[in-house]
Automatic annotation (TrEMBL):
It is found in: Cytoplasmic vesicle, COPI-coated vesicle membrane; Cytoplasmic vesicle, COPII-coated vesicle membrane; Endoplasmic reticulum membrane; Endoplasmic reticulum-Golgi intermediate compartment membrane. Keywords: Cytoplasmic vesicle, Endoplasmic reticulum, Glycoprotein, Golgi apparatus, Membrane, Protein transport, Signal, Transmembrane, Transmembrane helix, Transport. The gene is TMED7. This is Transmembrane emp24 domain-containing protein 7. GO terms for biological process: endoplasmic reticulum to Golgi vesicle-mediated transport; Golgi organization; intracellular protein transport. It comes from the Eukaryota. The chain crosses the membrane at residues 183-205.
Amino acid sequence: MLLRSRQGPGASASMLPLFSVLFLLLAAAWASEITFELPDNAKQCFYEEIAQGTKCTLEFQVITGGHYDVDCRLEDPDGIVLYKEMKKQYDSFTFTASRNGTYKFCFSNEFSTFTHKTVYFDFQVGDEPPLFPSENRVTALTQMESACVSIHEALKSVIDYQTHFRLREAQGRSRAEDLNTRVAYWSIGEAIILLVVSIGQVFLLKSFFSDKRTTTTRVGS
């Protein structure tokens, strides 16, 4: 309401391209999010061209599978290990590229013999470009630009929360399905045991009331 009163009748039309740019920037900022299946005894690597001095952040989380853990390893173009963790459920690592080249990060499930995993990771390279070119200037932003920047930051927070809750929901659903499967198998086992015991008791009681005929054999002298 405040924006419309400040900008007059043309405010709605002028806000459309601003919001279009805002959503495009949001989409570009999260293009590195990937969720993939990692089979047992498998290793999956990803590669990214990074310029020297660029700040990067790698964040990952195991959504489903086994004990929800995975091995992670990050190497620079020279093969120097920048980050290495074994059997981690989730983690975040931030670094600054020391040189130009292709950086490699791998997720390994080679320690698991029969359980596959579902892994989510977000690899952010560099800082997000400013929403408006005037943000890098000394001049102050207009009220419209300031409002758009505030909305942009709020939408980024919403996306972060949505991603977090989607991951928790997927992990909780996987655990619930696994628990449901175990309960179903346990119930089937109990039913089979109960059936066997019942049949055994029937035959046991029947043997108590059955007539036992004895035969006498005479041996002649």
